[in-house]
Structure formats: C-alpha cells, structure tokens
Amino acid sequence: MYDINYLAVILAAVSSFMLGGLWYSGLLFEKIWVREANVNPQDGHAP
Question: Which domain holds residue 13?
Fold first, then answer.
C-alpha cells in the first residue's frame, strides 16, 4: 500500500484553512472581495 505522511496532511489542511482565513480578512483582500462580490457586510450573515 501507500505510505501516507499524516503529519504533512494535517499541516497542509491547517495551513490551507489559515491562508483562506487570512485571504478574506481585512488584512489582505476583504474590501476588494466585498466590492467585487456585491456583498453587504451589514446584512448580518457570513457570505
């Protein structure tokens, strides 16, 4: 069978989750994304 490095799989999943959170945060592209997606942040729910 295949040898799977479970630590690498977990680290890749966590880093992907963190990068996605950072990507849509106010630190990077939140304002641009909100404008281009026509989303109103005052709607009270996450897009």
Answer: 6-39
